[in-house]
Amino acid sequence: MVGAVPGTVLPNEQATPTILEKIVYSKQDFRVSKTVDLSTLADVTSGTQWVNIIGLADQKAIETLGDIFGIHPLILEDIVHTHQRPKSETVQERLIVMMRMTDQQIPLQLEQVTLVLCGRTVLSFQEHAGDPFESVRHRIRNSLGRIREHGSDYLIYCLIDAVLDAYFPLLEQYGRMLETLEDSVTDSPGATEQLQIRDAKRELAHLRKTTWAHRDTMQRLLQSSDEHFSDHTRLFLRDCVDHAAQIVDVTESFREVVADLRELYFTSISQRTNDVMKLLTIISTIFIPMSFVAGLYGMNFDSKRSPYNMPETEWRYGYPFALFLMAIIASTMLFGFYRRGWFRRD
Fold first, then answer.
1. How far, CA to CA in Å, does 72 sit from each of 8, 39, 69, 122, 153?
2. Which of 36, 145, 147, 161 has the fewest CB atoms nearer than 10 Å to its CB?
């Protein structure tokens, strides 16, 4: 909050009520608690503990967690002020990783998730219920893979990897959406397509900013990982760096596609305008000689005064002849325009 003392924990008024979930596991043991008493929380002496905090409305609970696990008040302030840029840093021997988490849906919605490594305990703070960590819970619960064989450093890697992997289904949705949008822009561009291009441009710009920050965060985390990560886990962190770079590359390619779609939209609109103008020009051109014929026969000459004063006006078939002449002129011009390809839409 503007003007507040640094380190003041002031949750947002619209923050979700706070719920705690605790998982303690080792190679042989697994325990989960949906209702957690803060007074019983502490860093475990054996195994690994994961405390997941959903919702940031409870100021007292967050401050108590900070006291129990030695989290600096400035970090607690960043946790509840959920507009932070993705970053990683070490404060008082605590590794803090802040990331932006996606719900994998369009339109783009991102929320802040903060991971804190405190000895054998990993704390995860998220704004709302719903996260990409279910696969991690499943692996812990069923002892799949290596997760229960390694410590808290491997757990925080798994959580980071889950956050990054959640972007790939989102990018697949953007890819399908841009393909559909390209077809719409090519076939029948309109105001709806213009709004969709604008929204996609804005969302991908936001996504680009986030993914670039994630890539920088992963690179910084890998460079300073000796203190908190084992040699085994550092190998897996490199995979997170690759994933972050891949997300950046795909996002950049989608932004280029949106830029091309924007140009294609204006080109299509211009082409449709040209087609309309061409059609109107053809119609006008056809009616010019027809108007000449009608104007010629509409002149007020008296054929009785002179045999040269439009004698055909006295002819029995003069009027059908004039219509036939106009039809012949129009048909001839239409055929000529068709042979020249003026009716084809390139």
1. 11, 19, 9, 15, 20
2. 145
